[in-house]
Design brief:
With 423 residues, the chain is an alpha+beta fold. The protein contains 13 helices and 23 strands. The longest helix has 21 residues. The structure holds adenosine monophosphate (AMP) and glycine. The site of glycine has 7 residues, from loops.
């Protein structure tokens, strides 16, 4: 089988790494890919939202299966594009159709879905510039901190958590009237603040049945002790030590099951990953958000713990036979630490040579914002590499990742030295 992975981050390198281990995979392509995927697959210089370019590549390379990494092509309807095209409609696509991708594409859509299917989440109301006055009044009824969310995709930056009421009102105006996040904030969801510790749950579905992958927790802030600006994720741990059997049961019965059943009831076709962002409030899980893809860097700790052949799973998802698959998980813990360019998530320099890659033996190095140039590997993004290790527990795995990081360097390299600090 010939397989194409769309994306260029650490998540997609991890997908490629796992798919390359399958005997069912004949040729593997990644578009656009990075220096890591170049070592195990053929990179194609095509953007993930260039549907026509993707179509040409799929036909040229006789692709049978397309795995969509990031949300943008899904929210823009890549799966629907395949289904509507005579030449592409028989090709399997891992990722939901556009209507279901709205779970990530619109916060309001996701909140209405949860309300309809009685899935526990924060209380909310949504506003546009036409009823901004009601938005101010709603804020006055809440206790601080105030949670303001741009309805649409805002590259992970669209959520503001604000202590002061006047500031919250003024940010609401910035979002609705002054288009702080462009069209994404033409509508704003204001939510009740939930206090607790976060974790993520990853679900595979063929639209009928589901399988739950290991939980993971990521570290979103740039600074130690979870301080400073939000990033795409600075590290991750799997499994999540505080997610007991009982708590996982609550997640499955109160959240995963009603989500998959809700998709069916609402006639939202879904073959793909559901990434459920959760918060543990007291002893109960509540949903913070849905994503319609895997997390990054969570993928870098979840897939290394999956023992199954990933291509078998993808085939079953496409055929609607996921119920026949038994998921097997490695008992070891896995952790990953992100190396990032100094300055990220604000301005940073690119093109820095990365040294020491051949020295790392006890960890898996997943490339993210890195490219090959003249036989060297150089930085090309904010998040550069994820250093994943196994251990009998997360402490041991984290220690190994830090030992491996000591062998690596590039100019202005930065990473958090406290991943796992709160567990
Ligand atoms: P989201 O993009 O919806 O995942 O939100 C980004 C981050 O904002 C989450 O990872 C949480 O840390 C925080 N957050 C979002 N919604 C809430 C809420 N209702 N209560 C507390 N924190 C929240
Ligand atoms: N690490 C969070 C995300 O992928 O959205």
């Amino acid at each position: 089988m010939n397989i194409l992975v769309l994306g260029s981050g650490g998540r997609e390198h991890t997908f490629a790494w796992k798919i390359a281990q399958s005997e069912k995979c004949d040729s593997l392509f990644v578009a656009p890919g990075n220096s890591g995927t170049a070592e195990i697959a053929t990179n194609l210089n095509i953007s993930v939202t260039d549907f026509e370019g993707i179509k040409n590549a799929v036909i040229t390379h006789h692709i049978d299966l397309v795995v969509v990494g990031p949300e943008d092509p899904l929210v823009q309807g890549i799966h629907d594009y395949f289904l509507a095209d005579e030449d592409l409609k028989s090709i399997s696509v891992i990722g939901p159709q556009k209507a279901a991708a709205e779970l990530e594409g619109s916060k309001e859509f996701a909140k209405e879905f949860m309300k309809r299917h009685e899935i526990p989440t924060a209380a909310y109301s949504s506003f546009t510039k036409d009823n901004i006055e009601e938005g101010y009044q709603f804020l006055e009824t809440l206790q601080p901190p105030y949670v303001l969310k741009a309805d649409g995709l805002a590259a992970g930056k669209g959520v503001l958590i604000i202590q002061d009421l006047d500031e919250a009102k003024s940010e609401l105006k910035n979002m609705l009237v002054d288009a702080k996040f462009g069209n994404a904030s033409a509508k704003v969801v204001i939510e009740e603040f939930l206090d607790g510790i976060e974790l993520s749950c990853f679900v595979l579905t063929d639209g009928k049945d589901y399988k739950i992958l290991p939980t993971a927790k990521d570290y979103k802030r740039i600074g130690e002790g979870d301080t400073g600006l939000n990033t795409g994720g600075m590290g991750a741990v799997s499994p999540v030590p505080f997610a007991s059997e009982e708590f996982l049961n609550k997640i499955e019965h109160r959240i995963v099951k009603p989500t998959v059943e809700g998709l069916k009831k609402d006639n939202l076709p879904y073959v793909g990953f559901i990434f459920i962002g959760l918060i543990k409030v007291g002893d109960d899980p509540k949903v913070i958000e849905y994503n319609v893809r895997m997390g990054d860097p969570e993928t870098e700790v979840v897939l290394p713990r999956l023992k199954n052949d990933l291509v078998d799973i993808f085939e079953a998802m496409s055929k609607g036979t996921l119920s026949e698959i038994e998921i097997e998980i490695d008992n070891r813990a896995a952790t990953t630490i992100m190396l990032v360019s100094g300055g990220y998530p604000e301005a940073y320099e690119k093109g820095k040579e990365i040294f020491g890659l051949d020295e790392v033996k006890d960890s898996i190095v997943f490339h993210a914002g890195a490219q090959s140039r003249d036989g060297k590997v150089v930085t090309s993004g904010g998040r550069v590499m994820a250093i994943t290790s196994y251990g009998s527990n997360y402490e041991e795995a984290i220690k190994k990742s830090y030992q491996s990081i000591n062998l690596l360097c590039f100019d202005k390299m930065y990473y958090r030295k406290d991943i796992g600090f709160d567990l």
